[in-house]
């Protein structure tokens, strides 16, 4: 093993150099010059070394300063309040301080890079979502965002994450909305037998692309087109449903008119079942297909052709129904004229039979409404007619001198007479109420209230004539009673003068019937049949002949002067 050379010092070498110079014979001046040169060279070496060392120190200080500056910048960018100070935290030589700074700086740079990567991921997602929502992504992927490395704080990152979450929520809501609308389109297409893919492709190709490289479009314009497609399909669905419902109603109407067999009707049950269906109701697949609608239209057209051949019969049936309604409420209608007009219209072929039938339905509806408005009045007319008949019977009954004789049916006649008097007593109030009703009806309808049994008459005129004749009868009865009083008074005066007993004006057996009053119950001239035109069919009141006949029971002298009515009334008192 080789030994290391012995260590030589500057002093030993100078001493050896002095020996060598002595042996050589160098003078002192030369020796001093050479020693000075050696010292100068040695000083230069030291000076150079000092400069190098000073430069090394400056570099270390600069490196350390840069490190500290980077640490401060990174800490500031990361948003950490912790500061790093060489004086306060490091201590020791520069190399020791640098040895302490380097791992800290390396760790901070690693954290900064991680934070930058996190920012890039979040910002890239934000930019992409913005592009998807705005629709610019269709022009290509967005440019990656630049991260601001001067602000990498967790607070800033949280703001970006919050923004990203909002955009993700917006995207999810849009996807849900798209999903609902696509399902709606799918359902409508099933109802109307439409191509779902074609309808979706019209909105946006991304809705039907298989193995798509890009995400489904969620832009505002796509959502607007999708909503427009749903609206247009809904409108088309409503139109088809409305058309089918009209066709279904027409089918039912035609079936009823044509007496179509049930087995034939069942072929279109799927159509008639939609008549009362709401547009928002879920309906079977293919129920609104265009081919089905065309098929129903063909069937309706076929039935309409058959209907035309039977329409004349149907119109005439409606005419009979209209006549029955008018007849039920005693209204006049020129049936022969109406039938002749209808036959001429139908035979000419110029009239639309459907419109003609619709017009007849309208007339029937109005006739029913008109009949309903007359119903109450007609009911009162029936009561008045019944009371008039009973009034007529009661007059005949009370003129019968043998009505109290014990004979067959006398008891029943007495009971009927009591009921008749009660009914007749109500005639004035019944007439007053009936007249008021008729006047109100005529004022409301603007036409006279006509009543037709044998011939058309105005009911109000008939009532007024009946009332007038009734008053005339009451006046005749009053005069008859006054005449009777005069006769009895004359007979009494003759008996007092000549001492004779006056004979009664009627046989003793002819008593006044029970319950008979002296005014309205003693009336005559009511019809003996149930007709409203009673003035045309009534027996007249007491004629002059009947008055003379009533006066045959006593003779009134020619020179007899009757007392005035007031005097006779006072004498009766």
Give the helix/strand layout.
Elements (H helix, E strand, L loop, with lengths): L9 H15 L3 H51 L7 H5 L3 H41 L19 H39 L3 H8 L16 H39 L3 H4 L3 H4 L17 H39 L6 H14 L4 H47 L10 H16 L1 H19 L4 E3 L3 E3 H40 L35 H4 L6 H7 L14 H8 L1
Antiparallel strand pairs: 1-2
Helix pairs in contact: 2-4, 4-5, 5-7, 7-10, 10-11, 10-12, 12-13, 12-14, 14-15
Detailed description of the structure:
There is one protein chain. It is rod-shaped, with a radius of gyration of 65 Å. The protein has a two-stranded antiparallel ribbon with strand order 1-2. With about 575 residues, it is mostly helical. It has helices at about 10-25, 30-80, 85-90, 95-135, 155-190, 195-205, 220-260, 260-265, 270, 290-330, 335-350, 355-400, 410-425, 425-445, 460-500, 535, 545-550, 565-570, and strands spanning about 450, 455-460. Helices cover about 70% and strands about 0% of the residues. Strand 1 (about 450) and strand 2 (about 455-460) form a beta hairpin. The relative contact order is 0.04. Helix 12 (about 355-400) packs across helix 13 (about 410-425). It has 18 helices and 2 strands. Among the domains are: about 10-115, no CATH class; about 310-400 and about 410-490, no CATH class. It starts with 9 loop residues before the first helix and ends with a helix. Belongs to the MAP65/ASE1 family. This is Microtubule-associated protein MAP65-1a. GO terms for molecular function: microtubule binding. Keywords: Coiled coil, Microtubule.
